[in-house]
Design goal:
isomerase, diaminopimelate epimerase, globular, nine-stranded mixed sheet, 5 helices, single chain, Diaminopimelate Epimerase, Chain A, domain 1, diaminopimelate epimerase activity, about 325 residues
Length: about 325
């Protein structure tokens, strides 16, 4: 689903500071025949203006015309999600710097007083020969290298902006390097995430490598409990755990994620912080994962995290190479 809306915020630009395929839920745009409701919220100089939603209208009927409107003082955006991992998308092709600051992105991501999202994504002009550049601010204002579900939403948004049809692909410059998403005939988006990075210092993690320069099923003490973790980078750092001391298989529904997640994210052995996947093995081809994302907290899905989880499961011998 995609939602289009406008929000009035000052335009300020901040200073600048890969293994599996995933499918996209096809976004739908919205057009309302009802009066546009308005409400003010706690952030000064900001006003949210959103039209009511309809999921029956095709993308082409409203989004292009909406995004072409250029009223002064209004930020035009669309909202997409990949498996519930949701983002505000902003057309930023006319500038090499994001139209809003990281602080404003935090306000937009607020689920009670803003639009609500796991992050804000900007479509910027390409550099180094790429078609586009992708930058993203997390809901806490930090800037990650890349985002798997985010780049799928990015691809669908670009297709909408450029009025592209059928099967096509383009090159995207990200903080994790070159990414090439492919929009398929059925509207789903497939992304080659590239090879995983396993060398401990490149993940990065200060945990000692125990298998060919990689950290595989190593012990990590978090809040007095020993967890067994495997560290993987998909262009961004991940810590994957299937078990802790006294339990050989996690029951992820019983985890107090909001309590334990931040303690992994900010653990001293992860100098760039980390995304953390807590994984329950259901079978050799079926895993159940919950994720605490660096900079966004608990999210409903994580594309790079799904890839990292598959890598870790294979390295630990817990599952096959193809899995749900």
């Amino acid at each position: 689903m995609a939602i289009t809306a406008t929000i009035s915020v000052p335009f300020t630009s901040p200073s600048r500071r890969t293994l599996a395929s995933v499918n996209s839920l096809s976004p739908r745009s919205t057009r309302s025949t009802l009066p546009t409701p308005q409400r003010t919220f706690k952030y000064p100089n900001s006003r949210l203006v959103v039209s009511s939603m309809s999921t029956e209208t095709a993308v082409k009927t409203s989004s292009a015309s909406f995004l072409n409107r250029k009223e002064s003082g209004f930020l035009h955006f669309a909202k997409y999600h990949g498996l519930g991992n949701d983002f505000v998308l902003i057309d930023n092709r006319d500038s090499s710097e994001p139209k809003i600051s990281a602080e404003k992105a935090v306000q937009l991501c607020d689920r009670n007083f803003g639009v609500g999202a796991d992050g804000v994504i900007f479509v910027l002009p390409g550099i180094s020969g790429t078609d586009y550049t992708m930058r993203i601010f997390n809901s806490d204002g930090s800037e990650p290298e890349m985002c798997g579900n985010g780049v799928r939403c990015f691809a669908k948004f670009v297709s909408q902006l450029e009025n592209l049809h059928g099967r096509h692909s383009f090159t995207i410059h990200t903080g994790a390097g070159l990414i090439i998403p492919e929009v398929l005939e059925d509207g789903n988006v497939r992304v080659d995430m590239g090879e995983p990075i396993l060398k401990a210092s490149d993940v990065p993690t200060k945990l000692h490598a125990n298998k060919d320069n990689a950290v595989v099923k190593s012990e990590l003490v978090v809040d007095g409990v020993i967890w067994h973790v495997t560290c993987v980078s998909m262009g961004n750092p991940h810590c994957v755990t299937f078990s802790r001391e006294g339990s050989q298989n996690l029951l992820v529904d019983e985890l107090k994620l909001a309590e334990i997640g931040p303690k992994f994210e900010h653990h001293e052995v992860f100098p760039a912080r980390t995304n953390t996947e807590f994984v329950q093995v259901l079978s050799n081809s079926h895993l159940k994962m919950c994720v605490w994302e660096r900079g966004a907290g608990a999210t409903l899905a994580c594309g790079t995290g799904a890839c990292a989880t598959v890598v870790a499961a294979v390295l630990e011998g817990r599952a096959g190479r193809t899995m749900t």
